[in-house]
Write a structure and sequence with these properties.
alpha/beta, binds thiamine diphosphate, binds iron/sulfur cluster, binds magnesium ion
Length: about 300
């Protein structure tokens, strides 16, 4: 343990799945944010990191109900401010307030609490690891589930009938300090964005696409490849919003066919087997093309 940098997550020994893309992103983010942080976590896979009274973090951890993490963060931030105002805590010792939730909370159950927190200009970072479903309870569809993906609540031949909600734009519409998309398999892009977020004040959102071998049904060894393909096919645009401007930080040129990403994952197997679903495959490709046409 002594050889680890003081910012590094301690060995977890927790029942996380091998190849968890959410955990990969969290490792990378924690390395940068360090121990002067308080994590406010809503129920989800990452909750398993903490087994009371222990956590693998060298910082603090607070567990909230699924819809309430941003409200919990308000309480923590207020308490820290009161301590500083009363000279009971040195401002140098101040902690970064970090909400940590999955997509189920960020895109759905906790969205109104997020909206209120942004409106109040709460000084916090919201870190959403997005595995595109309610993973911890068996990958039911969430507001982040992509069109046509199979989940435990959308098992039909066409998969999930809805469309992934655009959380990036929902936050941008609130004009917060910062919004960025990241992925653990692009660590340099991720690191630069976390450094940027760390130096800012006010509401900041980081959405990390979180390849999930268990919920997306692929070999855990493929997690980094799946993540890289999400970017190379244009399915997961890497971008940031700062000072009223949206900038794409990595434009895939040329873009690989979306199929290259879909083929690796069992949740899309019904698009290829027993026969190719040309209509759905074309729709998925066309939607990605339409997005990038507006960017390029
Ligand atoms: C109000 C409420 N409903 C349901 C649950 C059960 N529950 C615990 S974790 C979880 C899944 C959360 O999904 P997400 O936020 O995407 O995180 P993930 O599990 O994917 O990491 C659910 C539904 C709960 N804890 N609270
Ligand atoms: S279900 Fe997915 S997100 Fe949850 S721990 Fe397993 S790999 Fe990670
Ligand atoms: Mg999830």
């Amino acid at each position: 343990m002594k050889d680890l940098p003081s910012t590094h997550l301690l060995g977890t020994g927790t029942p996380m799945c091998a190849g968890c893309g959410g955990l990969q992103a969290l490792h990378e983010i924690y390395d940068i944010l360090g121990e002067k942080t308080v994590y406010i976590n809503a129920a989800g896979c990452m909750t398993l990191l903490s087994v009371y009274p222990f956590t693998p973090f060298r910082s603090s951890w607070l567990y909230t109900s699924m819809a309430s993490a941003p409200a919990g963060a308000q309480g923590v931030r207020d308490a820290l401010d009161v301590l500083i105002q009363k000279h009971a805590m040195d401002p140098q010792e101040d902690l970064q307030t970090v909400v940590l939730t999955g997509d189920g909370a960020a895109y759905g159950m906790g969205l109104s609490a997020s909206s209120g927190a942004i409106e109040r200009n709460l000084d916090f970072i919201y870190l959403c690891y997005d595995n595109e479903g309610y993973g911890n309870t068996g990958q039911q569809a969430s507001g982040a589930t992509p069109h046509a993906a199979k989940t435990t609540t959308s098992r039909g031949v066409r998969g999930f009938p809805g469309y992934k909600k655009d959380l990036f734009s929902i936050w941008v519409a609130h004009q917060p300090s910062y919004v960025a998309t990241v992925i653990g398999s692009e660590p340099l892009d991720l690191a630069r964005k976390i450094e940027t977020a760390r130096k800012l004040k006010g509401p900041r959102l980081i959405i990390a696409l979180a390849p999930c071998p268990t919920g997306w049904d692929y070999d855990p060894r493929e997690s980094v490849s799946v993540g890289k393909l999400a970017v190379k096919t244009g399915v997961w645009p890497l971008k940031e919003y700062l000072d009223g401007r949206i900038v794409h930080t990595k434009i895939p040129r040329p873009r690989q066919p979306v199929e290259d990403y879909l083929k690796l994952q069992g949740r899309f197997a019904h698009l290829f087997d027993p026969q190719r679903n040309e209509r759905l495959l074309t729709e998925l490709q066309t939607r990605v093309d339409a997005y990038w046409e507006l960017v390029e």
